[in-house]
Write a structure and sequence with these properties.
- By secondary structure, this protein is mostly beta strands.
- It has 2 helices and 11 strands, in the order αβββαββββββββ.
- It has an 8-stranded antiparallel beta barrel. The chain has a two-stranded antiparallel ribbon with strand order 6-7.
- Mean pLDDT is about 90; it is low at about 10-20.
């Protein structure tokens, strides 16, 4: 339920973009498309993100991502809060904490695994390229979850207001 509420809120923010006008932009909602690699298995990932910039140097935000085919097709939902540092031009370095929710699945040995949540720590790096009023941000992130590492690579499409 909390994942649906978070994604609905972020999608509402993205629809509000065309009504906002200001020289100094503080709100940065976006849509993410990419791939997540865990244990040599790579699956399509998608999600929404939002950053509020407090200053030219600092921001904070929320991320929600979904990888439907991860963990033997059980799917993974990731929700986290992050803090961002903008040390140079449009470079963004992030550190976040949240949860990963894995759906129920049956593994190769026919053992049933019940749905569960685990704490997650994320480190991320992106750079915004501005094209016609929109931002295109190639992104790489690394998630640390229960002794495992997942690598996320993709592009966020951002519109500031």
């Amino acid at each position: 339920m909390k994942y649906k509420l978070l994604s609905a809120t972020l999608l509402l923010l993205t629809t509000h973009l065309s009504f906002a006008s200001s020289e100094e932009k503080h709100h940065f909602p976006g849509i993410f498309l990419g791939a997540t690699t865990i244990d040599s298995e790579t699956d399509f990932s998608y999600g929404v993100e939002y950053e509020y910039k407090f200053s030219k140097l600092w921001g904070a935000g929320l991320v929600y991502e979904k990888t439907d085919d991860a963990h033997h097709g059980a799917g993974v939902d990731v929700a986290l809060a992050s803090i961002y540092l903008h040390p140079w031009k449009e470079l963004r370095i992030g550190a976040g904490f949240g949860q990963e929710k894995v759906g129920s699945f049956t593994d190769h040995d026919h053992h049933y695994h019940k749905s569960h949540e685990e704490d997650l720590v994320r480190a991320s790096l992106s750079y915004d390229f501005h094209i016609g009023g929109f931002g295109v941000a190639p992104t790489i992130a690394v998630d640390f979850v229960d002794g495992e590492t997942a690598t996320i690579i993709g592009v966020a499409f951002i519109k500031a207001f």
